[in-house]
Amino acid sequence: MSSQMLNLDMEVAGSLAQEVAERSGQNLNACYQCRRCAAGCPVGDATGVTPDRLIRMVLLGDREEALNNRLVWQCVACYTCGTRCPNNIHTARITEVLKQMIKETHAEPLIPRIADFHNAFITSTSHFGRVNEMEFMGIYQMKTAKNELTKGGGISAIIDEIKNLMQLSKSMMKIKRLHMGMERVKGMAEIKKIFKKAKENRK
Amino acid sequence: MEIAYYPGCSLHSSSALYDVQCREVLGKMGIDLKEIDDWNCCGATSAAKTNDFLSIAMPARNLGIADASGFAEMMIPCASCYSRTLIAQKTLEGDKDLRDKINADLSKKVEGKIRIMSILDLLVDKAKSGDVAAKASIKLTGLKPACYYGCLQTRYPINVNLPDNVENPQGMEIVCEALGIEAIDWGYKTDCCGASAVYNDAGVSLKFIANIMKDAVARGANCLVTTCPMCQMNMDAFQEKAGAQYGISERLPVYFITELVGVSMGIGASELQIDRHFVEATKLMRGLNLL
Questions:
Q1: Engineered SS bond to B67: which of A196, B53, B111, B229, CB 3.0-4.6 Å?
Q2: Number of domains chain B is built from
Q3: Do B9 and A130 touch (CB under 8 A)?
Q4: Which of A38, A113, A100, A107 is nearest to A74 (CA)?
């Protein structure tokens, strides 16, 4: 982000900041870098980027960095940063919006498996109106396997993944928490309309 | 008294025990839960991370159904469903355009009149009025719970005006007091368990789980108690893995608040399905002669 910081183009910076502010409903300009958010962020250690840094990237118009850092994907949406922010800025809303922007432009997510997980959840919901855990995890496994095969850790990563899931399924089965039944909403026509409108809303 | 009820997907599958417990325990307190018709998934955090319209419209359909049900209140035990539904209701209250746009496709329109309640809203009211203590014939002496709230019933991305202290909530402590026990004081009650990160970013989530466990153990807790099915699942199913990885030898049962209230009311372990935990959860209670 250093080069962008040195060559700040107000017009470029303004368009990204405005887009993110409008969509997230957050007043990024109110951030005075007190870093209370950073102190409370549980993933800050893992991401290297804390909420205050992300806000800065967006304000400076560094689209590349803002859309390709670990915080955008590893943010667990715990809402600690926003709850503690003296200026009421919810950075978790900003990470949500940045993820949506990445999806809309069909750009490669920095951590594909996290994107795969949420996409699988939504796909599962669109099928039946409710999430059926077995179907959902199946879709997720297929998506991650495809990613691992093409650009990740290959076959061994897929085997590890399946082993972990089998182990969990086995212990869930033992205590009857693995649910095989499928539930479907009767008003699927309404669900389909909601999904259609959601797609039209953002392209 | 009858109130509307939204169980959500998790209470119809891996956390079905929580559904059973809510009906049992509240039923014995004279609250009859009426599941709303043909509800759909609330979208959970995944919708908010994928599409903003979806994240409001999905719970909105349920809100329309709930408004049409004629009940004044709807209880939602799952912290995620509760959070997303409350956020949708508050958002639509202040955004007429979005409400009209969503309502255009719904047979049952969002009116915004039903009051959304968490399980804790109900239980704290009942504890404060003395109803819990009156029904709780068995004092849970010997149980030292660490009340674990997690994120979604604590913090919200919009102002939802909730009464409990955001950094040090007391709702579950108040219920525990009514059951004759004092919950331990600890520092991780509103920390995140990682939720879905346990499946897609395991390193991060296992560390969270280990941190929560370490503090609970260090403060002398002999169990965790929660209201959130995701917190329950993560702390229960992944405790062994996180414990092994971070050198924690203790294993604590992770109860739903409804299990504590239920046992105290004399409801049996099998009726409450306390035998459906990953970390064995009946032994501690039997050892204390509570079951």
A1: B111
A2: 2
A3: yes
A4: A113
